[in-house]
Amino acid sequence: MRIDVKNNIINNLKIMSQEDNQTFAHQVYAIIAAIPSGNVITYGQIAKMAGMPTYVRQVCLVLRRLPKESKLPCHRIINSQGYLSVKGDTYQKYKLKLIEEGIKFNHKDKIDLKIYGWNN
DNA sequence: TAAATGACTTGAG
DNA sequence: CCTCAAGCCATTT
């Protein structure tokens, strides 16, 4: 994705947070929806982009409360170490989706954030 | 009301 | 690279 397009999305999100009286959760939704296919984002990045850098754990709460039928690309969210944090059946499901989007896992199931991370 | 819990992050060693 | 402890804070127990 081109840098200017990326920055546009980020700027729009900032404007939203300033002008709209949106909840933290709604900003999290908007940010997740904006992650391009083929890219991943970390929990901490989401918190920062939502203007609440210390609300990492709240990002997790929001995610856990998402309905199963949600269409948000939650599989594109990984931890800062480069690993998928989800456990069990969801893990394989997310991994498959990421592979379909062209993301490569190394021999330890780790994703290279330098390559696939959606950097600001 | 108090304590435990988390799909986490960071820095130190 | 990896592990570990401390920090985090609304929600659950």
Offer a concise description of the structure.
By secondary structure, the protein is mainly alpha-helical. 51% of the residues lie in helices and 3% in strands.
Outline the fold blueprint.
Layout: H1 3-19, H2 24-34, E1 41-42, H3 43-49, H4 56-65, E2 77-78, H5 89-100, H6 113-116
Parallel strand pairs: 1-2
Helix pairs in contact: 1-2, 3-4
The chain binds a DNA duplex (13 and 13 nucleotides) through residues 42-44, 47, 54-61, 63-64, 74, 77-81, 84-87, 90.
What count of domains describes the coordinates? 1
How many β-strand runs? 2
pLDDT averaged over residues: 86
Strand content: under 5%
Q: From the coordinates shown, what is the CATH architecture?
A: Orthogonal Bundle
Give the C-level CATH assignment: Mainly Alpha
Q: Tell me, what's the shape?
A: globular
Helix share, percent: 40-55%
What is the helix tally? 6
Question: Strand sequence of the main sheet, in spatial order?
Answer: 1-2
CATH topology, by name, is Arc Repressor Mutant, subunit A
Low-pLDDT runs: 2-8, 15-21
CATH homology superfamily: Winged helix-like DNA-binding domain superfamily/Winged helix DNA-binding domain
Features:
Arc Repressor Mutant, subunit A, 2 strands, DNA-binding, disordered N terminus, 120 residues, two-stranded parallel sheet, mainly alpha, single chain
Word description of this protein:
There is one protein chain. With 120 residues, this protein is mainly alpha-helical. The protein has a single domain (3-116), classed as Arc Repressor Mutant, subunit A (Orthogonal Bundle), CATH 1.10.10.10. Helix content is 51%, strand content 3%. It has 6 helices and 2 strands; from the N terminus they run ααβααβαα. It has helices at 3-19, 24-34, 43-49, 56-65, 89-100, 113-116, and strands spanning 41-42, 77-78. It has a two-stranded parallel sheet. Helix 1 (3-19) packs antiparallel against helix 2 and helix 3 packs across helix 4. The protein is globular, with a radius of gyration of 14 Å. The protein starts with a helix and ends with a helix. The model is unreliable at 2-8 and 15-21 (pLDDT under 50). The structure holds a DNA duplex (13 and 13 nucleotides).
